[in-house]
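Section: protein folds

Sequence with per-residue tokens
===
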Amino acid sequence: MSAHILIIDDEEAITKSLGRFFKKSGFMVSTASNGEEGLRLFDTELIDLVITDMLMPEVDGLEVIREIKQERARKIPVIGMSGEISDELVDIPLLPISPLLGVDFTFQKPIPNNDLLNKVKELLELYK
């Protein structure tokens, strides 16, 4: 049985592109267009790894990560990604602080697919 990846991003082009890529790479994939939808899928499906955008409207990636790692206390890998260096509203560099919330690895967009695939495989092996 292949691992099930949840991809959460408010940019539809990214969720579609990453979803196709990971399906072709042999993974089961679920996608969500926002954090609220992502958490709903997380609660109803057996997810092995989460890839989430950090900056999204309403429920952002930081809240998704906090919910998964702290509130739901699931021991699964989470990869954070962002096209922005910081949140315009608070000017906090999100990628550097995300490990404090339990993010296993962060990427600055755009991400080469093979780099992301290699990190996914590495984290899934680490969390076995």
About this structure: The chain has one domain: 4-126. The two ends are 13 Å apart (CA to CA). The chain has five helices and five strands. Residues 2 and 48 are 9 Å apart (CA to CA).
